[in-house]
Structure formats: C-alpha cells, structure tokens
C-alpha cells in the first residue's frame, strides 16, 4: 500500500493534515495514463488486427480493461477528496471513527460518522452501477443483474426509475416497478398542470381540461389494475410496452408490433386499442392450453408510430428498428426461449428493416403489410431455422397501396392513387409502397389463412387469431396455410 504519511501526519488527530488536492492530483494522473493507453490502443490495435495478431494477443480487451480500471480509480479518488473536504469543514476527528466497516481505514476517516459514510458510499456505488449498466449491451446487462444483490437492484430503481424503466436486459419485475414510479410522477405533473390552469381562470369546459382529466384517470387505472408496464415514456406521442403473462418464466414469447397512428393516448381505449391484440393472443393461447410451455405476449409500442403521410416513408421504421433489436436481445439474451414477432401494417416495415440486419427471433409474421423493405423471405436474418409468415385478410385495402413505380407510364400522376389499383384483393399486388408484398407467392413466406377476418384491423380475430396463436405455441403442423399455385415452389 502507498505511504500515506506524505499527506497524513501520524500525530494529527483530525483531517487538517490531509490534502484533498493531492488525491485529485492522483486522479488527474490516472486520467492522463488512461488517455495515453487509449491512444496507444487506437494506434496499435488496428494494425495488429489487420495482420491477424489482434485476436491471438487479446490486446484490445486487455487494454480496455486497464482503461476501465483507471477510470474507476480516478472516480474513487475524487469521491474521497470531496468527502474529506466536507469532513474538514465540519472539524471531524478521524480517530473517533471505526475502521472496521468493510473498507480500509483511510476510507473510514473520510466522513462525518459511520451512518453518513454508509449513505454517501451507497449513493456513490449506485451511481457507479447505473453508469456501468448504461454502457453495456442488453445481454451484458442481463448477466450483470443476475449477479447483483437485491438491495442494489432496488436502489437502482428508486434512485433512477427514468433509466431503469427503459433498460433492455434488466429484469422485468424491476422495470415494472420503475414504470409504476414514472406513471405516478406523470400523474402528479398532469394534476399540477391542471391545477395551474384552474388557478388562471380556466373553466371546467376548457378545451385542455377534459383531455387532461381523461389521461389522469387512464393512468390511475393502469396503476390500480397492476399492469405490467415494461416501458413508459409520455413525451411526444409517447411510447409504451405492456406484458401479458410471466415474461421471466415464459418458454415462448410473442412480441406484437403495431402500425401507423398508434400512440400512448389510444394504446388502451377501454381495451379496444392496440394492447388488446396482444392480450387476446395471450388469452387464446392460455385458455386453449396450446403450449406445454408458459407463454407471454408483449404489446410493443417502443417506437414513434407515424401518422398519415408519414406512413409512406421509412423514417420511423429505420429509427425504430434498432429499438426492437435491443428489446429482443434483452428479453432472451441466452436464446433459451422461442420468440415470435408479429408485425402489423407499418409495423411490418419496421420489423423488415430490423430483420434485414438481424432480428433475434424464431418466427416473423407480417400481417396486413404494405411491404417490408425485403426482396424475399430469405433476406430476413433470423435465428437458425427461423421461419417467415404472412397474412392478408379479405378486403384489406393495404393491398391497394401499390408503389407508384408499378403504374404504367401513361397514367397521369394525379390518378396514381392507391384505390385505383387492379384486382388485388386475393393475392395482393406484387409491389407495394414499401417493397415486395410478403403475401405474394414470389416473396416465399408461408402465407396463413385469415378465415373470418376482413379488412385491415381484424387479424386478431377469429381464424387469423387462431393461426397466430398456433405459430406462437410452436404448433406449426396445425397452422392453416393458403395453398400456393401449382409449381410455384413458394413453400
């Protein structure tokens, strides 16, 4: 151990012989060495990997580990310096403190008393933990939480609910608790806003007061019903993710991705909103005891769903695809469970973008799709032996959303409107707004029947729902398929 006598006199009863600036100087030195190592790693690792020596030497991760250790040491020294400065201002005598509190005696003298030290150190540790977790990918987080103590995990939720509520890879129960806290905070904020409006003279018929009251009542219902909210972000149009079933223990998981015009305001709509699709899917599987494994379904509105004309562009899909990829990685980091993604309408554009670069799922189902950005089912990068399915209900107008490039050259632009398409109700146009129609034979997906479903919003009803439930349950031989034309070789 270093010789502390250079800044702590043996005959000094208090903290007056300790110079906090010396500790800060040591922290600065650690930072300097860390920057030098980072520079050296940057200059050498690329060369070593280029010539095939990087993996053999392990120099990249070794130097990265040294950088991390120096960063933690610098933070530790700065924290101690701040604590000592506080103790000096209070005239605390270090000889009055016990050194037998779990750390070295030097750390024990850097506080007013034992209880103060415990609280300060606990806060410091939680800050270090949350920062470390934020730098990890979802799989690493899942492993970190598996080895974390219950008090530390609870402290993370209480001190940082805004981070923990959306942290992919964190245990669902922790995220549920964090989001309950966030919903309560949002209720308080909305009530305060409503009170300020009333104080400024707004009457009960004010155009803002009624929607405010409805939103507050809605959030209160969420809390009263004990909903399993895995994500709650009321900013903008809002993002919300809800779970049905035991996500931790489920052997099979279905993630339902919605299309355009979905937001936090219409998520429930007295259980008739998008969340009802995931709930009905869960209840269908559970009530029929379709699977020998426990099943959980997820209503995933984890992206900013586009409105109206925004659905003709891919901006929202490209922005939301990484969020879906991270979510799936955090749900099943060990790839021990069967995961199905069911993407409806514009949600299939998002899922298609994600699948183009890798989607951690066993099954991908496109329902009522305006195109997926993929040329064929074979372009979807799924788990080994992954399957791609599609569904197109009778009279679904999405099949009329023909890509303008598919119209003859002689059709004037004012007439190139979706509803002027040819007879595409049965098989769908080959090329839709966002690419190849996944219900078309050439795409190569397994097309399921949709008996009893008609239109664009009925896929979680009747025969379609039964087929989707069978896919999630792994009952592939019982899934009813639309027979491909003879010789098509689609399946």
What does this structure look like?
The strands form 2 sheets. An 8-stranded mixed beta sheet has the order 1-2-4-3-5-6-7-10, with helices on both faces. A two-stranded antiparallel sheet has the order 8-9. The termini are far apart. The chain is globular and about 80 Å long. With 491 residues, the protein is an alpha/beta fold. It has 2 domains: 4-135; 235-478, 3-Layer(aba) Sandwich (Rossmann fold), CATH 3.40.50. The protein has helices spanning 20-50, 54-57, 59-90, 105-108, 114-134, 138-146, 150-159, 161-164, 172-199, 209-224, 275-287, 315-331, 346-357, 462-473; strands at residues 228-233, 239-244, 252-257, 295-301, 338-344, 363-367, 387-391, 431-432, 435-436, 446-447. Helix 1 (20-50) runs antiparallel to helix 3 and helix 9 runs antiparallel to helix 10.
End-to-end gap: 70 Å
Low-confidence parts, pLDDT < 50 over ≥5 residues? Answer: 1-15, 92-113, 404-428, 485-491
The average pLDDT is 80
Indicate the structural class: alpha/beta
What can be said about this structure in brief?
This protein has 14 helices and ten strands. The protein is an alpha/beta fold and 491 residues long.
Protein topology:
Blueprint: H1 20-50, H2 54-57, H3 59-90, H4 105-108, H5 114-134, H6 138-146, H7 150-159, H8 161-164, H9 172-199, H10 209-224, E1 228-233, E2 239-244, E3 252-257, H11 275-287, E4 295-301, H12 315-331, E5 338-344, H13 346-357, E6 363-367, E7 387-391, E8 431-432, E9 435-436, E10 446-447, H14 462-473
Parallel strand pairs: 3-4, 3-5, 5-6, 6-7, 7-10
Antiparallel strand pairs: 1-2, 2-4, 8-9
Helix pairs in contact: 1-3, 6-12, 7-9, 9-10, 11-14, 12-13
């Amino acid at each position: 151990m270093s010789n502390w006598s250079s800044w702590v006199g043996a005959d000094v009863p208090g903290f007056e012989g300790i110079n906090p600036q010396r500790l800060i100087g040591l922290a600065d030195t650690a930072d300097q060495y860390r920057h030098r190592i980072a520079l050296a790693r940057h200059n050498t690792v690329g060369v070593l990997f280029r010539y095939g020596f990087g993996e053999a030497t392990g120099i990249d991760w070794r130097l990265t580990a040294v950088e991390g250790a120096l960063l933690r040491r610098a933070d530790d020294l700065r924290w101690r310096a701040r604590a000592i400065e506080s103790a000096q201002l209070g005239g605390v005598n270090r000889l009055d403190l016990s050194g037998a509190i779990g750390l070295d005696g030097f750390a024990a003298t850097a506080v007013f008393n034992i209880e103060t030290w415990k609280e300060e150190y606990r806060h410091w540790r939680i800050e270090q933990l949350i920062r470390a977790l934020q730098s990890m990918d979802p799989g690493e987080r899942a492993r970190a939480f598996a080895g974390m103590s219950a008090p530390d995990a609870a402290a993370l939720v209480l001190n940082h609910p805004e981070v923990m509520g959306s942290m992919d890879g964190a245990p669902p129960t922790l995220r549920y608790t964090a989001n309950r806290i966030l919903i309560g905070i949002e209720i308080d904020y909305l009530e305060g806003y409503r009170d300020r409006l009333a104080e400024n003279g707004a009457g009960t018929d004010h155009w803002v007061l009624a929607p405010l009251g409805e939103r507050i009542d809605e959030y209160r219902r969420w809390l009263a019903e004990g909903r399993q909210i895995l994500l709650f972000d009321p900013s903008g149009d809002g993002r919300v993710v809800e779970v049905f079933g035991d996500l931790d223990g489920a052997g099979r998981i279905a993630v339902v991705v919605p299309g355009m015009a979905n937001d936090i305001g219409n998520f429930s709509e007295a259980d008739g909103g998008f969340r009802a699709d995931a709930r009905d899917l869960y209840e269908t599987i559970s009530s029929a005891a379709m699977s020998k494994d426990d099943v959980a379904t997820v209503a995933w509105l984890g992206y900013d769903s586009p409105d109206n004309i925004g659905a003709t562009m891919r901006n929202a899909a490209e922005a939301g695809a990484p969020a879906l990829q991270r979510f799936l990685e955090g749900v099943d980091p060990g790839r021990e469970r069967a995961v199905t993604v069911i993407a409806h309408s514009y949600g299939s554009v998002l899922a298609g973008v994600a699948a183009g670069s890798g989607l951690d799922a066993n099954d991908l189902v496109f329902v009522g799709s305006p195109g997926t950005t993929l040329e064929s089912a074979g372009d979807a990068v799924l788990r080994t032996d992954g399957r791609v399915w599609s569904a197109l209900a009778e009279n679904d107008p999405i099949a009329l959303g023909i890509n303008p490039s598919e119209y003859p050259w002689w059709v004037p632009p004012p007439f190139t409107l979706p509803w002027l398409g040819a007879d595409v109700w049965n098989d769908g146009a080959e090329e839709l707004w966002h690419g190849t129609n996944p219900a078309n034979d050439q795409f190569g997906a397994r097309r399921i029947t949709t008996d009893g479903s008609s239109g664009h919003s009925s896929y979680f009803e009747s025969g379609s729902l039964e087929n989707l439930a069978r896919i999630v349950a792994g009952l592939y031989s019982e899934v009813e398929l639309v027979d491909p034309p003879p010789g098509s070789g689609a399946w």
